[in-house]
């Protein structure tokens, strides 16, 4: 597959009629190295955020050896792509068939649960072995996060005692896990959650071997500039060390977004302009699911130098026939942008590239590797975004 310097070089060479996905392995490598080197414990990549086999190999080569998988398809994918990886099956509601295949065929030993029925199911499906690591998921607040994960999974503190005691009996190694919600904009989210963990441990008086602080580590998007990840790591480490757990207890995390958001951007073409609305060739059923359904704002830039430097705010329509294939933005682009122009949409690596469907006959997208910087980064030590102040890429280099 041909590699390009950047999006501009690509459109000049290919003038693509379909949306194109750009891979930035160097950005994913940098993110993975950051977690491997600086998170004060073990980092499991949450595969659901972006299950691309190429990305899995990039993360593995950068030192990520553990993977949080949430379905049997993800178990099979990672087992096939990275046979030596350690898999942790962290969906709290699994089928007996999935548990049995994961344990007996793929060597999975780590499972999460949040109720007694799931514990019984895991024990039965695995044959009550002596080598299970079982993580009890606690319900915690999502109040500091852009995307809540507080209502579906997690045992209440009031019920945690009995579940922890029962799980301790079945587990070789007992863990407690939680998820503070995705894109947690304050490190305090983890302190609050770990305070609940502390209360649960004290109440149940059990020996805990693993504390898993889950995902939620943020990326940078327009209008969302989180504190540095070092602040999250420092406060997690301090709070972890104050928990009533043994010296040998392990600290884990399960970053999805933070490891892959910068890995992809897409190039779309404007098929029509209607006032301040641009009809583009990717959308709600493609890589822009979050932009359509939860109003997520991604960085955009016009690819070329023939348009005005005056900017205007635009909304997008995707290619399908549905009214809801609409992304309100606002997306700032040159005021005279028109049909046939190309736009790069950045930070699509997490829950973007992975969301494509073939609905309405759309959804194909070729991948190309590019060597330039992602539009924004948590890993360059710079607070400011990487795109130029006028948001327009010059054609002259
Ligand atoms: C159990 C679990 N772990 C980790 C993640 C990754 O979360 P994030 O992408 O916010 O880091 C998720 C996301 O839904 C999850 O459900």
Description:
- It comes from Blastomonas fulva.
- Pathway: Amine and polyamine biosynthesis; putrescine biosynthesis via L-ornithine pathway; putrescine from L-ornithine: step 1/1.
- Its cofactor is pyridoxal 5'-phosphate.
- Its EC number is 4.1.1.17.
- This is ornithine decarboxylase.
- The chain has 397 residues and is α/β, with parallel strands linked by helices.
- The protein has two domains: 3-23 and 262-393, Lyase, Ornithine Decarboxylase, Chain A, domain 1 (Beta Barrel); 25-260, TIM Barrel (Alpha-Beta Barrel), CATH 3.20.20.
- It contains eleven helices and 20 strands.
- Strands 1, 2, 13, 14, 15, 16, 17, 18, 19 and 20 form a ten-stranded mixed beta sheet that branches.
- A hairpin with a 2-residue loop joins strand 13 (264-274) and strand 14.
- Helix 2 packs across helix 3 (53-61), helix 5 (96-104) packs across helix 6 (116-126) and helix 8 (188-204) runs parallel beside helix 9.
- The longest helix has 17 residues, at 188-204.
- It is elongated and about 65 Å long.
- The chain starts with a strand and ends with a strand.
- It binds pyridoxal-5'-phosphate.
- Residues 46, 48-49, 68, 90, 149, 179, 182, 214-217, 254-258, 350 line the site of pyridoxal-5'-phosphate.
- The site of pyridoxal-5'-phosphate has 18 residues, from helix 10.
Alpha carbon gap, first and last residue: 24 Å
Helix content: 25-40%
> What structural class do you assign from the helix and strand content?
alpha/beta
Radius of gyration computed on alpha carbons: 22 Å
Task: Tell me the CATH superfamily of the largest domain.
Answer: Alanine racemase
Helix tally? 11
- Main sheet summary: 10 strands, mixed
CATH topology of the largest domain: TIM Barrel
Question: Which CATH architecture of the largest domain?
Answer: Alpha-Beta Barrel
Query: What is the residue-averaged pLDDT?
Result: 94
Organism: Blastomonas fulva
Domain Orn/DAP/Arg decarboxylase 2 C-terminal: 272-345
Keywords: Lyase, Pyridoxal phosphate
InterPro entries: Ala_racemase/Decarboxylase_C, De-COase2_C, De-COase2_CS, De-COase2_N, De-COase2_pyr-phos_BS, Orn/DAP/Arg_de-COase, Orn_de-COase, PLP-binding_barrel
